[in-house]
Write a structure and sequence with these properties.
Strand content of chain B: under 5%
Number of domains of chain B: 2
Distance between the termini of chain B: 56 Å
Helix content of chain B: over 70%
Shape of chain A: globular
Mean pLDDT of chain A: 87
Order of helices and strands of chain B: HHHHHHHHHHHHHHHHHH
Mean pLDDT of chain B: 82
Structural class of chain B: mainly alpha
Structural class of chain A: alpha+beta
Order of helices and strands of chain A: HHHEHEHEEHH
Largest interface: A-B, 21 and 24 residues
Largest sheet of chain A: 2 strands, parallel
Number of strands of chain B: 0
Radius of gyration of chain A: 19 Å
Strand order of the largest sheet of chain A: 1-2
Oligomer: heterodimer
Radius of gyration of chain B: 21 Å
Largest sheet of chain B: none
Low-confidence stretches of chain B: none
Distance between the termini of chain A: 47 Å
Strand content of chain A: 5-15%
């Protein structure tokens, strides 16, 4: 699970966070170390692995929490905004990873406001608006794009830029 | 001039809004005990004879004021302001001295204890603020030595112990306790005629200095890891015991040359009495501050823990066994509370 609050151990480094969690999920120390090294390399965290979580950038924190979520190779993954604050390269890696896990039979439920990514990776899209399910469809077979469905529900934004910003 | 006035006005707003220094020292068992002891003596005469306790009390308190100043004026933000280095240091010092609690203490010392005490307070404040300011600007990162890396042990919960230990090091309670323990141990080892009756009392003081932490064991990192603890497949009692041992072992080491049984008995009861607020209250702990506790549980910790500690020193090991039994009951109860909060 990748929760909104991330749930990191703030005074542990990135690598220590992974090493702390692995054994509790039943992995041996050496298994955890191998998997952690792989995930850090994949998510481009190797260089910053000795940074204390409290001092990490938002993107690094998010990727660390994602690495923790993937460490024990769960069958069901719940991800809250996994692409928010992530650099494009890591974002592409996460897309590929999720595709791989999904094709291996894992169930992935994710929330996202980045509709372009949702369109690419989701096999089923549910749009919630004001606490209600407004739409539930398969983006690959739908007539309209995800953005079109979304804006038809919530309405197109009509921003009013103040004069002093325009001048 | 207009720039300086704008900065001062900003500082005033930030300070009045926050006043974190005051809230951070509320209901801390150690501070309460110190104030109680100080009130017991004749203030003016007691000041210089209790200089050690004054420093133990004031230095960590001044650290909180200084940390608040750094927090109020974050380095990254101030660096973008059009100020010279000297102006930045001056701004930080003005912000530190303008702290209402700082001023209150200064005038208190000045009027009730005399000019010398007031000047002593200002000198100590300058040293503490200068040190905190310099440490915050070190060109390298301070790291925990690898030898203290508990997560490398074969324990499955080593990571949780490591996290708790490092958060413990970020509280001023721990350092105040260590200071008392070192002073007490030096007294025992090198004092001219150390009074054996004093050792249990010093151990008790070490325990009291750390005891409020036991009320906030799960939220020493502002409650951020709590979410992870809830997600991890770990039994509540294991989590609690891991955290408790991270509290109890350093306490035992600190009092090992004073009165081990007093310290351990106090620690066990303090952990048991702090169980409920630790699991149920949502009071997050900020770093480099004294831990703020709940006065009801604080009184229970000091009184019951004190009874257990003195009892263990005077009546024998059976009191330690009773303290351990109370602790075990609190673990079972804590497991129930943990399950309830996890399922809520």
């Amino acid at each position: 699970m990748l929760p909104e609050g991330l749930g990191l151990f703030e005074s542990l480094t990135v690598i220590e966070n992974l090493m702390a969690v692995g054994p509790i999920y039943g992995l041996t120390k050496s298994e955890t170390a191998t998997r952690a090294a792989d995930l850090l390399r994949l998510l481009d965290l190797t260089q910053g692995r000795h940074t204390v979580a409290r001092n990490c950038s938002f993107g690094m924190r998010k990727k660390t929490a994602l690495a923790i979520a993937l460490l024990h190779k769960p069958k069901v993954l719940l991800l809250d905004e996994p692409f928010e604050g992530i650099d494009p390269a890591s974002s592409a890696v996460i897309e590929m990873l999720l595709g791989q896990l999904s094709s291996n039979g894992a169930t992935i439920l994710l929330t996202s406001h980045i509709l372009s990514i949702v369109r690419k990776i989701a096999t089923r899209v549910v749009i919630l608006h004001q606490g209600r399910v407004e739409s539930d469809f398969n983006p690959s077979t739908a007539d309209e794009g995800v953005e079109d469905v979304y804006f038809s529900i919530v309405g197109e934004p009509q921003p009013e830029v103040p004069d002093w910003l325009r001048a | 001039m207009a720039q300086s006035l704008a900065l001062l006005s900003l500082l005033k707003k930030l300070m009045l809004k926050e006043l974190g220094s005051l809230s951070s020292v509320r209901f801390n068992n150690f501070l309460f005990c110190i104030i109680f002891l100080m009130l017991g003596g004749t203030p003016k005469a007691a000041f210089w004879s209790t200089l050690f306790f004054q420093i133990v009390l004031l230095a960590p308190l001044l650290v909180t004021f200084s940390v608040d100043t750094q927090h109020r004026l974050p380095q990254e933000r101030v660096a973008t302001w059009p100020l010279t280095r000297k102006q930045r240091l001056l701004l930080s010092s003005v912000s530190f001295a303008l702290n209402p609690v700082f001023m209150l203490l200064f005038f208190g010392y000045l009027f009730w204890m005399g000019l010398a005490a007031g000047l002593f307070f200002v000198l100590l404040a300058l040293i503490v603020h200068g040190t905190v300011y310099a440490v915050g600007r070190l060109p390298f990162e301070l790291r925990t030595p690898a030898g203290l890396n508990i997560s490398r042990t074969p324990l499955r919960v080593g990571g949780i112990a490591q996290e708790t230990w490092r958060e413990l090091l970020g509280t001023l309670d721990f350092w105040a306790a260590l200071l008392i323990a070192i002073a007490g141990t030096l007294y025992r080892l090198f004092g001219r005629a150390p009074e054996p009756e004093a050792f249990p009392m010093i151990s008790l003081f070490v325990g009291i200095a750390m005891s409020t932490i036991a009320q906030r064991m799960l939220r020493l990192d502002e409650g951020r890891a709590l979410l992870r603890y809830r997600l991890l497949p770990i039994a509540g009692w294991k989590l609690l015991v891991t955290q408790d041992m991270t509290f109890l072992i350093p306490l035992a080491v600190m009092v090992s040359l004073l009165s081990l049984r007093t310290g351990v008995a106090f620690g066990l009861v303090a952990l048991a009495a702090g169980r409920y607020p630790s699991l149920r209250q949502r009071a997050n702990q900020r770093r480099w501050r004294f831990v703020g506790g709940d006065p009801r549980f604080g009184v229970a910790q000091v009184l019951l823990g004190g009874l257990a500690g003195i009892g263990a020193a005077r009546a024998g090991l059976w009191v330690l066994a009773v303290a351990f039994a109370i602790y075990v009951v609190s673990i079972f109860w804590g497991e129930l509370l943990w399950r309830r909060s996890r399922n809520a």
